[in-house]
């Protein structure tokens, strides 16, 4: 453990004893794991391309709660839905009328009410991760700090509609690390759309450590859209754990158009027959931004379907990391799995590291994977220029079309157009020195 991790371990709060015994034991286990191993380092295989030096140089400290405040005004990426403010990882009062069968509570309130299934969901994460040592340091820290967050429960067969989480942090003199836990419990046949928007309107150097856990009952459906457009000095670390029963569907659409240091870990466990998972993402980098996507899909039952489709563009000194793994376990016969990651470099200084992985231990499996890092097609540029466009216009049109394929997967066309416009505004420009030689 380095000096910074040791400092954070010393800042961990003492348990006040006001929570249920099982919850206190959970926090204690997370604290002990963090004190033993600290935060991940480049020596951890999963983090060898992503260092935390920038956070350490800022002297980032643990946030010990938040002042009562009002979520800042944000430009919402969707007009319809139920908006909920998340300030410094803490759920603000939401005066909204939810559909029948939907319960939305702060994590503190949910613990007091004893929401069915919450204990099993929270306890499932550290038990499955405790042997991974420091590579799960942020998860351990999140568990040790477990208090802020929210719980959404959707009853059997209910349609929860769209819930929009507006994440932001308070500007302070010292860089802070905020933790929050989002718990989603979908009963059989339930539906929910979760939109997360990370976009603090004021420049800050804070880091958010968010863990999302979801238990999808038989035949349920969760659509999950995450838009991140933070300032160049802001950090975001997320972990998303999805467990899926038979016939359930999970769709993830992640868009990273900002942020200084961003890391997303996605893990889907297809536990029941014919479960489906679709993971999609687009990331745009310029300046010195760093975005790391790690995805893992475990096919545990027959007839499952999974797709991973990510597109990236890097200019300036931007760096992207993409590591995707699919494991088809024994007995998961008839699985179909697809992996695709394509990237465009616009600068000699930009870097993209991509690594698809596939392991199969079952029969009658259909699987494919591919990863590319290259430049724009010069013949396509020539064609567009011959039709009257400038070289800059031609390159911009081709780059937008390349990434827009992710937006086009969204069923909501209005939302897709809103995100596509943000993508256009955030698209990095080609470096004057040109793309790297290949």
Strand content: 35-45%
Coarse shape: globular
Using only C-alpha atoms, the radius of gyration works out to 21 Å
Helix content: 10-25%
Topology:
Blueprint: H1 3-11, H2 21-37, H3 53-57, E1 61-62, E2 82-87, E3 90-91, E4 102-106, H4 107-113, H5 118-129, H6 137-144, E5 149-154, E6 159-168, E7 176-186, E8 191-198, E9 207-216, E10 221-228, E11 235-244, E12 249-256, E13 261-270, E14 276-285, E15 290-299, E16 305-314, E17 319-328, E18 336-345, E19 351-360, E20 366-374, H7 378-386, H8 391-407, H9 413-426
Parallel strand pairs: 1-7, 2-6, 5-7, 6-8, 7-9, 8-10, 9-11, 10-12, 11-13, 12-14, 13-15, 14-16, 15-17, 16-18, 17-19, 18-20
Antiparallel strand pairs: 2-3, 4-5
